Structures are given as C-alpha cells and as structure tokens.
Amino acid sequence: MMPSERSTPKNFSQYPRVIALLTNPRNQRKVVAVAVVALASACTKAATPVKPPVTVSVATAEIGNAPYVVHANGLVEPAQSVAVQSQVGGVLTKVRFKEGDEVRAGQILFEIDPRPFKAALDQALAVQARDEANAAALQRDADRYASLVLKDFVTKSQADQTAGQAAAAKSLVAADRAQVENARFNFENATIAAPITGKTGVLFVKQGNLVKPGSNPPLVVINQIHPIDVHFTVPDRELPLVQKYSDGKKKLRVIVTPRGVASAEEGELNMLDNGVDTTTGTVTLKAQFLNAAGHLWPGQFVAVDVQVYVQENAVLVPTSSVQTGQDGQFVFIVTAEKTAVVRPVTAGLVVGDRTVIEKGIDAGMVVVTDGQSRLTPNAKVEVAQPAPAAKAARNPGGAP
After folding, report:
1. Residue ranges with strand state E in 259-321
2. Where in the chain is CATH 2.40.50.100?
3. 202, 224 in Cβ contact below 8 A?
4. Which CATH class is domain 83-221?
5. Domain 52-79+226-387 - what CATH class?
6. What one-character-per-residue DSSP string does 95-163 give?
C-alpha cells in the first residue's frame, strides 16, 4: 500500500527526494523487501553466548581415621640428673673416665687420696677394741659382785658401783662403734662411684686438685638420656580431654620432632601436673621416650604432638576443598554431568592437610579442591589433568 499523505509527518515534506523514491513504482518492491528484512532482524533476539567450562582440580572424599592431636612446644630434659660432688675433702688422685663417656651406676669415677681416711679408720678400730676389752672386764667384775652381794661378802653399794662402771664401759663401746662407722664412711667415700647410669658432661675438677665437700662447681654432671623426658604445656581448655583419655591403663601417645631430624620419636605421656598456671592459663605435661638413637638431647627444643583420641571411619576431604561463605561452610561437588553443585557441610577435625566432614557429603563424592573462586552454582566444569611426571635427570657424569 502506498503511504498516504495523512500518515506523512508534517516535516517529511522537507525531504522531496525521499518522497520521490517512495512514490516511484519501480522502487516500491525494493522498499518492501528492505522493510521485511529489517522487521525480521528486529524481531530476532540476540543469542546468549555459551560460557566455557571452568577448569578445576578435584579429589574424592574418603573414609579414614582422624586422630585428635594437640600441638605444643616442648623442652627435653634428662630423666635423672646428678651433680657428682665429693663428701670428703682431699687431693683428687685419679679420674677414671673421659668427658662425655657413658657410665653405669656403681662405676668408679674418682679417687681421692685415701691415706688420711685409712689412718682414721684404723685408729677408730683400735680405740673400739681397747674399750671393748675394758667393758668386758668390768662386766665380769659386775657379775662377780652381783653373786657376792647375795652372800653378804660385799656391800650392796659396791655391787651397784661395779654394775655402773660396766654399763658406762658398754656405752663407750657403742660410741666407739659410731666413730668407726664414720671413719669407714669417709674412707669409702674417698672413692666416688656413679650414682646413676647416664652420660657425663664437662669435667670441672681435674686430677691433682684439692676437693672439698659440697664445693661448687661439682666434679661432673651425669644426665640420664635413656630414657629421657620432654616437658611441655598445653592450654587449659585441652585439660578435660587429656584427663578423660589419660585416665586409664593405656597412656596417651606423644610424638616429638627435634630440629633438623626428619624422623620423629614416639613416647608416652607419664605426668600431668597437679595445677594450672594462672599467669599463662596452661598446664604442664611430661612424656618419656626410650631415645634409643639418641636424637633427643637435654635442653633441646622440640615440636610435640599429643594424640588424645582417634575418630574412626570419618569422611575426609582435602582442607582446601572446604570454603566459608555467609551461610557457613560449604564445598563444591562435581556431579556425573560435570556440574559443580554447592553442598553445605559441617567440618570437624583437621588432620594434616585433610578435614573431617561431620555432615553434608558422603564418601566417594568428588569435591573441588582448586578453582572455586571461578565457580558459580551449577556451573559446568572440566577436571584438570595432572601434570606429567618429569623425566629423571641424568647423572652428573653424563651416564644415563
């Protein structure tokens, strides 16, 4: 249909060339075709671009055991430590060990000049023998006077006097025996033995020096390192669990790792202090280790892990898969259709690089461990392939 003058805008008359084109019969077909194409293009909606799948890393939720571990810093200390000192004074004549040696309980370590002590012992023995002989004679006199007084050959006063002299002599012998024991003690302690089995340290007093009883520094310090102890502190909030699981025949398992040593040492908790330190809010614990290899050394700082209990048959996922949002914790699981679905979860213990999932997913489900920041609910995903293993390097000499 030709456009009428009534439908033409008032200002359309300003374009006579356009009017001429529209009113020309030869151009009407072209105008209609162009209008139809424009109308079809306007009615067609723009196609929504398809988003490419998001590349993610995944892992499978597994069933395993999850130990509840309390971490702390500990200090190694000897099970026993003895500062060896002399109990008598004299010249140190012999040292029968080398610094750093392992010694056994009862092993001779030092010898002090015994001659003064031997002389004192001999003198005490001689005095004792003299007084014992005198006491025996007086006792015989007392016995005779006791029988004579019954026959009125001697007076009662004479009999009592001889009995008193015999009793005094007997007491003197008892004092002599004490003197002998003291002299023998001094003589025996001129030879100093190791009181415990352990490792000796620095020798503070060399041979030829004069030693005195209770002198400082001691002759040497012996530390028992087989077994050895580690003491450490834990927050008082962990105390109820430690008390609960250590109150029984089975002791708690403790693992310590010294600095610079790859292998850890395993021992048992053997002491829980009887009070909480109010200044730090911590309680002191002590564990004992066999230390067969000698990795633990007195005064050494170690990392301590106390295994309080084990949660068995728990659902474990990599910790990196657990995310935290406004509504709590969640994970992305990958369905069989390669779609990422959000699952709210309740996370529990953290065991190394894995976390226990108390509720939300089951074992066998595939969870996203990397790439969550690019994901949206129900987004398509593509699982990243693991990187190929690098070829083994050749030997420096060039031989394969």
Report:
1. 265-277, 282-289, 301-318
2. 83-221
3. no
4. mainly beta
5. mainly beta
6. E-S-TT-EE-TT-EEEEE--HHHHHHHHHHHHHHHHHHHHHHHHHHHHHHHHHHHHTTSS-HHHHHHHH
- The gap between the terminal CA atoms of the chain, to the nearest Å, is 90
pLDDT digits (tens, 9 = 90+) for 263-321: 789 999 999 999 999 999 999 999 999 999 888 999 999 999 999 998 899 999 999 99
Q: Can you say whether residue 213 is alpha, beta or left, with left for phi > 0 and alpha for psi between -120 and 50 degrees?
A: beta
Q: Are 377 and 327 in contact (CB under 8 A)?
A: no
Q: What is the chain's mean pLDDT, rounded?
A: 85
Per-residue pLDDT at 302? 94
- Which residue in this structure is represented by tokens 């009615």? 43
| Pairing label, strands 253-258, 265-277 | antiparallel
Contact yes or no for 329/319 (Cβ under 8 A): no
Q: In terms of Cα–Cα distance, which of 11, 59, 82 is closest to 383?
A: 59
Q: How many residues does the chain have?
A: 400
pTM more than 0.70: no
Cα separation, 94 vs 89, in Å, equals 14
